[in-house]
Amino acid sequence: MIIGVLGPKGTYTEKAARQWIEKKELENEAVLEYCADIQDVFFLLEDGGCDIGVVPMENSIEGSVGVTMDMLMEGEAHIIGETVVTIEHCLLSRGKKEDIKIILSHPQGIGQCRHSLKEHFPDAELRTTGSTSHAAKLSTEFEEMAAIASPDTAEVYGLNIVMPDIQDRKHNHTRFVVITKLDDDELKDKLKSDDPDIAYKTSIIVYLDRDRPGALYSILGEFAKSNINLTRIESRPSKKVLGDYVFYIDFEGNISDAIIKDAIYNIEPQVGMLKMLGSYPEFDSHCESN
Ligand SMILES: O=C(O)C(=O)Cc1ccccc1
Q1: Distance 209 CA to ligand 1 centre (A)
Q2: Does ligand 1 lie within 6 Å of residue 131's CB atom?
Q3: Cα distance between residue 232 and residue 187, in whole Å
Q4: Which atom of ligand 1 is nearest to the CA of 10?
Q5: I need a surface site. Which of 46, 89, 170, 173 has the fewest CB within 10 A?
């Protein structure tokens, strides 16, 4: 089974993928395919180059990962799982702290360390890369470069940890989603089936089409009426005109539950578009460590 992840070796996304692989007991079958950026994970999946993909979705400090949200809207990928990884950013370099002039990372990495960078490296040039480990790899070339990445990545690329705990807040977590293009039958052949008794979550995207008072209220009311708990609601630009949005809604429950099916049935006639992203086992922080 080929699993597309953000590369090169040493990304947090790889950590997330390994966490999910272990949970699904796929250690003997899974082969990781490293991609240059998040978009490429989706393209690899769409082109049939991998069975499964793992991509970052949202971070507790920096918020949503726009490219992941956009690619979920645009493509055929659907969500079959999620996992949460604890983020522990460090500053990695070949040189010493006083040599550092350029700091590299994925935009999420830079965003999660913004205040700390201003405080400790006010004059450094900040440059974005495809991933945290891509930044680490580039930093092996010059002593004046440093990467924001995980301590494990320092080991992979033989870099020094010049500053541990560089993130703005101690508690830092990223939620990753597991995506596929395979249908239920194909998945049944490849994956151990999920325990039907565990808690599920469902993700949808809705576009309201007609801007009118109470349109979103009415949709959210369908969830409230059925006592369905929302876990996330985010808007993204519809990309049609300024001020026009699509809404990403996550809620507790499985689309195979009658109560969820009924709520979706009631919402559908009220919206211009409803895209079902998938129902999948909710990450359980009590059972899963990382
Ligand atoms: O997976 C990575 O290493 C990335 O570059 C994306 C990212 C960046 C920061 C936190 C979590 C994921």
Answers
A1: 34
A2: yes
A3: 26
A4: 3
A5: 170
Tens digits of residue pLDDT in 258-277:
999 999 999 999 999 999 99
Whole-prediction pTM value? Answer: 0.96
Could you say which architecture CATH assigns to the domain 90-163?
A: 3-Layer(aba) Sandwich (3.40)
**Closest listed residue to residue 2, CA positions, set 183, 181, 152:** 181
Give the class (CATH, top level) of 200-281: alpha beta
- Tens-digit pLDDT profile for residues 147-169: 999 999 999 999 999 999 999 99
Question: Checking DSSP bridges between strand 63-64 and strand 90-93, what pairing results, if any?
Answer: unpaired
Does CATH place domain 2-87+173-190 in 3.40.190.10?
A: yes
Which of 3, 5, 6 for a ligand 1 pocket mutation test, highest count of atoms within 8 Å of Cβ?
6
Phi/psi at 204 (nearest 5 deg)? -135, 165
How big is the CA angle at 245 (ends 244 and 251), to the nearest 5 degrees?
Answer: 160
- Which is the closest atom of ligand 1 to the Cα of 6? 1
* Helix%, strand%, coil% for the chain, nearest 5: 30, 30, 35
Measured in whole angstroms, how far is the alpha carbon of residue 284 from the centre of its chain?
16
- Check if 2-87+173-190 and 90-163 are the same fold: yes
Q: Where are the domains of the chain?
A: 2-87+173-190, 90-163, 200-281
Ligand 1 pocket member 13 (CB < 6 A): yes
Q: 109 C-alpha vs ligand 1 centroid, how far in Å? A: 6
Q: How far apart are CA 144 and CA 285, in angstroms?
A: 39
Structure-token match 């450094």, residue found = 124
Residue 133 is classified by DSSP as H
